Amino acid sequence: MPSVQPLPSESEVLPQPYLLFLGDVTEPGYAKTAFGLRDWARERCVGEFACEAATVTTGLPFLTPVQAHAQGARTLVIGVANAGGVIPPQWIPGLVQALDAGLDIVSGMHAKLDEIPALRAAALRLGRKLIDIRRPPRGIAIASGRKRSGKRLLTVGTDCALGKKYTALALARAFAARGVDADFRATGQTGILIAGGGIPIDAVVSDFAAGAAEMLSPDAAPDHWDVIEGQGSLFHPAYAGVSLALLHGSQPDVVVVCHRPGRERVLGHADYFLPSIEETIELALRLGRRTQPAIRCGGVSLNTSHLDERDALRLFEAERERLGCAVADPLRGGAAFERLVTDCLA
C-alpha cells in the first residue's frame, strides 16, 4: 500500500485491534465499513458482533465483547454505513455492553456517540473513549479552482456501495507496485479507518466541500498521483451534491467509473433506476471539464463478486468491446486489471 499522509482530522491514533459491530443490518451494502476493514485491514480485526436481528456477516468469528477483549480487541468499530448515518435505539444495549467489556467505541456515523446519553454516561463511568471519526478538520477554505501540480484519479460510480473505495485502494496499490509515487486519499469513514487519514467529505458544510477536496489532494510533484476515493453518484437523488463537490475540487486528470452488473435500482431509493455506464462517463467528463479541461476516462471497474470467474472474464471482454475502454474487476486482478492500470497512467 502506498504511503498515506495523515490529514488534520486524523491526529488521534485509534486503539487496535477491532471488534466489528454489524448492528441489525440485513442489507450487505449497508455493512460496507465492516467489509472494508475485513478486506483491507484484516490484521486489525479479531471478529464481529451484532444484534439478534442482523442477517449480514463478514465471515469473521462471532465474539461477544468480553470474548473479543480477552482475545486482544481494544475497540468496537461500528461497521455500518446506513442511510443518514443514524445510531438506532436497538443498538444501544450492545454498545454499552462493549464499553462494559473494556472496549472503546469508534464510529463513522453522522450521529455522534457523545450525544447519546446512555453511551456518554457509560463511557464516563468506565473511563472509556467515544471516538467519532466523521468530523472534518477545521480551517477548510472555499474552493479556489486553482490548478494544482501533480496528477489525480477519482473513482466515480453509477450508485453508492458498489466499489469506488475498493477500486481506489487497488489502483493506488497497483500504481505503487509499478514504481509510481501514489497516495490513496480517503473521503469516507471506512477509507479513513483503513488509511489512517482523510476527510469525511459528506460531513463538510456544502459550501466548503469542494475546498475540502482541494485540501485532500494538495500540490504535489509532477509525477505524483493522488488516487481519490469517490462518494455517492452524480445521478443519486440524495448524494449527488457530495459527488459533484468531489469532482470539481479534485480536478481529476482521470476518472474510473465503477458499477455493479445486475443492479438496476439505486440502493435505498428503489423508485430510481441506475444510469448506464455510458451516461455516467459522459456526465462525469462534462461536469469535470469545468475545473479540469483535460479530464478523461481511464476505464471501468466492475464489481463482479456475484459472478464466477468464467462469466466475469466474458463480461470484461464484452464490455471492453462495447465501451471501447479497459474494463476490469480490481479485486480479481489479472490481465484486464493490468490494462486498466496502464490506461489510467497513460
Supply the helix-strand structural class: alpha/beta
In the CATH scheme, the class of the largest domain would be Alpha Beta
The ordered string of helix (H) and strand (E) elements is EHEHEHEHEEHEHHEHEEEHEHEH
Tally of individual domains: 2
- Name the CATH architecture of the largest domain: 3-Layer(aba) Sandwich
Q: Tell me the strand percentage band.
A: 15-25%
Mean pLDDT: 94
CATH evolutionary superfamily of the largest domain: P-loop containing nucleotide triphosphate hydrolases
Q: For the report, how would you describe the main beta sheet? A: 6 strands, parallel
Shape assignment = globular
InterPro entries: DgcN-like, DgcN-like_C, DgcN-like_N, P-loop_NTPase
Domain D-glutamate N-acetyltransferase-like C-terminal: 142-336
Organism: Luteimonas galliterrae
Domain D-glutamate N-acetyltransferase-like N-terminal: 44-136
Structure, explained:
- With 346 residues, the chain is an alpha/beta fold.
- 33% of the residues lie in helices and 16% in strands.
- The protein has 11 helices and 13 strands.
- The protein has a 6-stranded parallel beta sheet with strand order 7-8-6-9-12-13, sandwiched between helices. A 5-stranded parallel beta sheet has the order 2-1-3-4-5, sandwiched between helices. A two-stranded antiparallel ribbon has the order 10-11.
- The longest helix has 15 residues, at 309-323.
- It starts with 17 loop residues before the first strand and ends with a helix.
- Mean pLDDT is 94; it is low at 1-11.
